[in-house]
Structure formats: structure tokens, C-alpha cells
Amino acid sequence: MTTTVPTPVRKPRSQSQWSIVWSQFKRNPLARVGLGLLGLLYLMAILAGFLAPYGLTEYSTTDRISWAPPTPIHWRDAQGHFGPYVNGIRRDIDMETFRDKYVEDTSVTCPVKFFQTHPGMEGRTYRFLGFIPTSLKLFSVDAPCKLYLWGSDSYGRDQFSRVMYGSQISLSIGIIASVLTVILGLIMGGIAGYFRGLTDTLIMRMVEVLSAIPELFLLITLRALFPLNADPILVFYIVIGILAVIGWGGLARIVRGQILSSREQDYVQAATALGASDTRIIAKHLLPNTATYIIIFLSLAIPGFILSESGLSFIGIGIVEPYASWGSLLKVAQDGGFESLDARPWTLIPGVFIVLAVLAWQFVGDGLRDAFDPRRRR
Amino acid sequence: MLSEVSVLPYIFRRILQFIPTFLLATLLAFFIVQLAPGDFLSQLKENPSVRPETVERLRKEFGLDQPIIVQYFYWLKNFVMGNLGQSFQYKRPVNEVLPGPFMNSLILVIIGTVLHFAVSIPVGVYSAVRPYSTADKTFTFLSYIFLGIPSFFFALLVIWGMLKLQQNFGWDMPLGNKTSSKLPTDISWWRSAWDVFIHALAPTIILVLRGISSESRFIRGQLLEVLGQDYVRTARAKGVAENQVVYKHALRTALIPTIAGLGGLLPALIGGAGFIEVVFNWPGLTPLQLTALGNQDIYILQAVTAVATLLYLVGNLLSDVLLSVIDPRIRYH
Amino acid sequence: MTPQGEVLLAVNGLKTYFNTDDGVVKSVDGVTFHINKGETLAVVGESGSGKSVTSLSIMRLIPMPPGQIVDGEILFTGKDGVQKNIVKLSEAEMRKIRGNDISMIFQEPMTSLNPVYTVGDQIAEAVMLHQGKNKKEAMGVAADMLRFVGIPAPEKRVNEYPHQMSGGMRQRVMIAMALSCNPALLIADEPTTALDVTIQAQILDLMRKLQRDIGMSILFITHNLGVVAEMADRVVVMYGGRVVEEGDVVEIFKAPRHPYTMGLLNSIPRPGEHVHVPGQPKGRLEAIPGNVPNPLNLPRGCAFEPRCKFAVEACREAVPPLFDTGNGHMARCIRWQEFEQVQQEVTA
């Protein structure tokens, strides 16, 4: 194409490809926002135990407070002292609907305490970073008050805490499933592209067949493989496995295409002439070229998997009790029916987190794609 | 625009290519479903509500005591003849259980397909012809949002919004289900059709918003790229008017990948409709499939998957045919 | 031999600038030349000299943001005999000229034809647009044009798609399309650069023959001096967005008056014959040192000065005007008289 708009000459700077990509990425405002948001969300997941005033499954059997609204926090007490505190909760009967209603009991006040440990409360201990047992909480209140920032569910469990813990599952499944998918896709695509012939046809047929079944139905069908009431932790792994099985086809196709076109490149023939073995050629020459695609694929696959997992959990065949993911928490909003939505709109909050996580990954993914694209240099 | 090479042999070839894929896909689904725990023949026999004659008939028709691969061929033979098996939940042939939910899902899919193209093409074209204008930037911003929101969450938000509207303004909102419960049963057909349509509108719009977002951005990108091509410059150099340049010379080529995507659109809509059907209580395929899953009703599971796969293949065939009509380069391969 | 005749196209002081994020790019910065009826004018220069932008400005095909014709006039006498200023025409009036009075062919025949329409359709489109013929008549004209440009079996080829043809044939189709409405002026922007040398020769032969047959003018843009020698009656040399030399083709080759032109001519490997550059030993193959100037940051004085062997202090102070060295031979160099003297001494 003839150049109609002349491109000005820039001072040449020699940089490695990765530092160019990083500096381009940094210049993209949306990408920066996405990265920052991701940092916040994943920090929240790491600190979930610290941020959540209650345990994941903590509720009282003697003093169950179901469907409590968010607890109002007061800042200035009757004596004029400044400091956050909450009132107790009293159960009343709503005169119009004849249902339970929870109102504030102003005779009881409990200050909000910061950085408290709760020795002896089994439900509130957690393992920081997976191995340090502690029960240090950023903020909490003592009995008999309750601090339900985002209300409680039918068991009386604090939703805020559940959303915090839910982030751990929602955010990690996306990454784990994606990594698994990439590994599967690399292996299958690599084999297909390198060995060609019957292997290639078989693998590509598999991909085609898998993609012929609409995703939701395939998810449901694959889930049917395992008992519906399996152990919740097992279900966690089952979900990851299903997501990976569905996702590897796309990457396998790309990797195969890359290899097929690189095969004809001179440097591969040179390596073969020098006596390099097949595995060596694949590992040292062909795979690094696909690194760009893999990074971009990851940044697009992770939000997709977050959505898929939320969807599965939402319809009840994903993460199950007692664990929580944002999707399963959103199920609570759906199960209550329309009147529940009306009365308890705060049950929709987990959905906001899903949106934030997905948007953040999408910004990052788009930013990466643009950063790798030499035609979009800023 | 059709040259001497006819499209018919091409269609025939594509159908032949699809058959093995269909067989393999349904075989895969069959295997997976069968691998689920439980042996159906014994379950059937133990189930007191199933009559022994029924059990015997099913055993014969579907070879329930044979190895799985043989059972598959029984199923295939029956499928081709229109016998989709028996539903254990509803104690009726699947043929009777399936059409209702299938048509309901189809309503959403058809309206959705129309909306998809009717909105994304004009939006995409406008954005390409006036790039970086306020409208274009707004569309891009909205696209991001719609692509980031999961459909079921958005559906919940919409329902909540409709609830609020109904409460605060007294408007009559089509809240879920396929029809209003308030209407009398003896109304004219077009009134009930309209009622169904109104109820289908909210779920369908939510269903296609994601697709429209990505498609319109995609069309914009494609059209911008084509408008920068040399042959578009040639057309301008010939004195062709700008709107002719866009619609006659550029759009046809730019839309080629969009048309190619039609094949994927149908099954995507069917699968995507799933969550929305659940939230809106719309009696489509997915609620059917979910209850079948919960009750291990394998013939429904198998039939729904097979039908959905068939639709996918039909959609692909459709888009391949359309592509070969539009892009002459394909026909010669 | 220059056909003496009326002026068909006169470009006076054309300035086409581009507003980019990094500043204003002055692609064409005050260009003046003219083309007579029936003659071939070659415009020579490296990439970045502004030659393509000049031709696109004549066709008004510059994208108007970010580009802009800032100054100057382009006077053109169309087939209707009326002289117009192209810069001032409305878009609708301009469309009547494009493909009709002035046609243009481009460098890449492989990508310049629409892949989803037959070549006949594409030629017929121009005919229907400008001559009001119906589809059937226009296709007949298309077949005639294919025959005219030497494509065998034109009635069959008219229904073929571009991807069924070779590069050389596609360029012939482009020429057929460009000539289908008998334009007064054909602008050819490097039409043979992307083709094999043998095909190149065929296309050039074709263009010469067609020009003889229908008497049109050709504005031939190229960086290839061999092609210039074959095709052109007169030459315009461009550098840094300006005309630096203009004149009869034989004169320019024998006695260039601008150091840039000298450098170009000396860069052609030719056995035996070389232009004598004052101060240089004869017979050496030279490259011009340095790079094209940054169009965002043109020097205040002569644009060629940084690379010029003969530069003096005065060259940096102001842009030299175009000097008339006689016989319609113009040169933008303050030392042209010295060159003339030396060359006369050598040939004497």
C-alpha cells in the first residue's frame, strides 16, 4: 500500500521484545486500570481471611439470624464519642407481611474492633497464605452484636465474609483451568502440527467434534459424568477439569497452525540438518514462537473461565455448599424468586465482583494484544 | 454475481463432510452420558412406577443389555427414524417432551438472530465510516460493559429493574415465563402471540447484547481495514461515489467473516440462552436439560445434545453456502 | 522531442500538508510544473520526496483529515474544454473527473482490483458511471478494452475474477479500466515496479502504443531512471517536497544542473558513459550519502544541502528559488551556472 500519510522518523532504540511490550502496555490507560483492579481483587483474595469478619460457614444454631439486612454502622454515639459501632439485632414481626423483620436494638451497642484475634473460635481461623494458621481479623464485633456488612443468608452466614472467601475460588479457578488448558492445548496442538498425517487428522477431528456440541450442553453433559452429590472439594477439581477439556481445542488449533507454518521456515531445516532431535526442535525452536499467542490466549481465556465457572455454579452444578464462589452466591438471589430480589437487592453484590474481575482481565488482555501488535505502537 | 460454477455440488460435499462429525459428536455425548454412574436396565427394573412391559419394550428397542457401542447404534437407528427414547421423569416418549421446550428456545434464537444482524451491521458500519466520533466511542464503551457482564447477572439486574418500574410506576412488566398468567385463556391467536413476543423480548435482548457488542466492533474493524485496501482506492479513483464505495465495494468483503460466523451464531445462541432461560423462567431447552441432569433422564440428555449438535452443523452449512455465494474465491478450491 | 502544444494540466505552488500527532508533515511544499497535451511527463524522486502525494492531490484522493491542500492551484482543462481549478471543485464535480478526464493506475496490481467482482464488472462500472451506458453496452466496452490492452480471448476473460489472472494481466486490466472513458490524462504511479522485468517492458510498450493511438498525456511517477529514459518527453525531479529540476529528458540526462539529479544519474550502473560531475574522476559508480530529510523537520535552507557535495554556506540560509537555465530547463541550485560552465568545458 503506498504511503499517503508519511510516518515520521523516530530515534532508533534497541530494546528486547519484552521490554518494548511492557512499555507499550504501561502507556495504555485502560490496561493500567485493569492491572490495578486485578491487583486489588487478587490482594483481596489473598487477604480474604483477614478481611472477612466471620468464617466461611460460620453461623449460630442457637441464635440464627436469617436474611438480615446490612447492619448500619454508626460513627458518633450518644455521648458524642467518635468511633464506629453497631447496635444489637432484635427480631420483630412486620405488620404488613407477617414475616420476620430484623430491626436495630439500640439498647445494645458494640464497638467495631480492629485487628482482633479470636482464639478458640474454630470457624474463624484460617490459614494465611495456605499454611500460617491465625484468626486475626481486620475488623469484627463481639457477641451479641452482628456485623453484617452485606446482610446474611438463610442460615445466618455473613455475606460479606462469603464474598471475600468466594473470591478465592472464583479468581483461582480461572487461572488454574487456563493453565491446564494451555498445557493440554500445547501438547495436542504441538503433536498435531509436528507429526501431521493421521495424528493431525485425529486430533483436529476431536477438536471439531468437541466444538460441535454447544458449550453449555457439553458442560452439563460432562458434569453428568460425576455424581451430582460428590464431595464439594472433588467438585472443585471436577469443574476445573471440565473447563479445561472444553477449552483446549482453540489453543491447539492456533499452536498447530503456528507449527505448520514455522515448519517450512529455514531455521527448522537448519536445526534438523545439524542433527537436532524432534523434541529439541519443538521445545527450543517452535514453542518459543508461540509464546506471544499463549500469553494473549491466557489473558482472554481466564475471564472466559471465570464466567463459565460462575455460570455453572449459578445453575447449581458448579461449586457447591459449603464452599462459595461468586456465581454460587448469586444463585441465592435467583433462588429466592422475584420477591427476594425486591426485598434483598444486596444479594446481587457478588455479581458486581464477577463483572469487575472479568472487565479487569479484558482490559489487561486487550492491552497485551495491542502491546504486542507492532502496528499499534504509541 | 453467480458464475458458471454452481453451488449445489459444494453443498452436497459439505453435507457429506458433516455426517462423520455428527456421528462422532453424538457418539461422544452418548458415551459420556452412559458413563454416568448407574445401570439403567436395573434401575428401570427396580423402579416400581415403570411397568414391566415398558421395561421389556425399552430393552428391545434400545438394546439396554448390550455393550455401550451397540446401544449407540440402536439409539442412532432410532434417532434417524424419529424415536428419541423414553423419558423416565415424564414417563412419555422424548418425542413428546422435546418439541415444546425446543420451540421455546427456538423463539429466542430466531428473534435473537434477526436482532443480532439488524443491530450489529448498522452500528459497525456507522462506526467504521465515522471512526472515533462520539457515537463510535460510546458504542465501544458500551461493548466493553456488555462483554464483561455475565448474562445471568445482567438478567437478574434487568428483572430487578423491571420490578422497580412495576412498583414505582405501576407499569405492567412481562416478568418471566412465556406468557402472562393474567390473560384469559380464550383470546385470539395474535393476542397470545403478541403476549409471548413481549415476554420473549427482554430475555432475547439480553441474549444478543454480548454478541452484538463483539460483532459490531468486529465489523467496524473489518470495514476499516477493507476501506484502507488498494482496491477501494481504485474505486475512488474511478469516480465512484463514497456511499457506493462503502456499500458496494467494501462492505461485501468486510462482511465475509461475519457471514462465516453465522454457523457459530445459532448454537451459541442456543447455549447462551440457557442461563437466561433459567433466570427468566423461560421454558426452553436448558431448564429441561437441567432437570434431566438432576434425574439422570439419559434419553432427554442425549436427545437435547444431539439436536443442539444438529443445529450447529446446519448453521455451519448455512454459513458455508452463504460464503461461497458471496466470495467467489472459495468456490474454486 | 517535446510536442509543443497547449497546457493540459498546470500545478502552481501546490502545498499539501498532513496534521499528525507529531506535528505538521509538509509532504508537498510548493510544487509547480505543467503537462502539455499528448506528452509524457516523468516525476522522479526517492520515496518520501512527495511525488505520490502530488499525484494523489491532483486526483483529490488525499484523506482530508489528516491531509489538507493548504495552498496552490491545479488548473486542468477537461474534455469539455473548460479550465477548472481542481483544488476548488466540489466533491461531486471531482467525481466526474476521476476515471473520466483523469485516470490513475497504481503500483500493486495484485491488490488493486476488487476480488469479489469480475474484471468486466469493474471496467463496466466506470463506463456506466461516466458514459451513462447500460450494463450490456458497458460490458461490451469492457471486452473491447481488454482486447485493446492486448489480453487474448477478451469475451471469456471479461467474466473472470482477478485472482484467476497473473500480475501482468491484472495491470493490463487496470490500464483498460483507466482508459475505458478516454481520459485526457493518465497518472501512472510506479505501474511497473511490482512486475517482472520482461512484463515491465510489455506494459511500457503498451502504454506508449496507447498514448500514440489516443493522444493522451501521461504523468509517470517513478524512481527508475531507465524507465524515464524510455517513456518520458520531459522530466520533473522532486526532493523534500519540492521540484528541484525540470526539463527536457535528453537535456536532463546529458546536462543535469542539480546535484541531486547528478547523484541519481551517477547511481545507475552504465558501462562507458557517465555524466561529468565537476571535481570527480570519471567512471565511478556513486551512491548519494546520507538520508532523505525528516519531513517533520525540513532544513531552513536547501533541503538537499546536508547530503550535497557542493554545498556552501549560502545554501543553508534560504530555500533556493527555481532558476531558469534556458530552454525550459529549471534547476533549484544557486551554483547551477558553475555546473553549466564545467559541462560546457568538458564537452567543448
UniProtKB/TrEMBL annotation, chain A:
Keyword Zinc: no
CDD domains: TM_PBP2
Record-linked Gene3D superfamilies: MetI-like (1.10.3720.10)
Entry keywords, A to Z: Membrane, Transmembrane, Transmembrane helix, Transport
Organism encoding this protein: Deinococcus phoenicis
Any one cellular-component term (Gene Ontology): plasma membrane
The name this protein goes by in its record: Peptide ABC transporter permease
Transmembrane segments: 33-56, 169-195, 207-226, 232-255, 293-320, 348-368
Record family assignment: Belongs to the binding-protein-dependent transport system permease family.
Biological processes, Gene Ontology terms: transmembrane transport
TrEMBL record, chain C:
InterPro entries linked: AAA+_ATPase, ABC_Ni/Peptide_Import, ABC_transporter-like_ATP-bd, ABC_transporter-like_CS, Oligopep_ABC_C, P-loop_NTPase
SMART domains, sorted: AAA (SM00382)
GO MF entries: ATP binding; ATP hydrolysis activity
NCBIfam families: oligo_HPY (TIGR01727)
Keyword Cytoplasm: no
Family: Belongs to the ABC transporter superfamily.
Subcellular location: Cell membrane
Name used for this protein in its record: Oligopeptide/dipeptide ABC transporter ATP-binding protein-like protein
Record domain ABC transporter: where: 9-265
Record's keyword annotation contains Nucleotide-binding: yes
GO cellular component: plasma membrane
Membrane-related topology note: Peripheral membrane protein
Organism lineage string: Bacteria, Thermotogati, Deinococcota, Deinococci, Deinococcales
Keywords of the record: ATP-binding, Cell membrane, Membrane, Nucleotide-binding, Transport
CDD domains per UniProt: ABC_NikE_OppD_transporters
GO biological process, one term: peptide transport
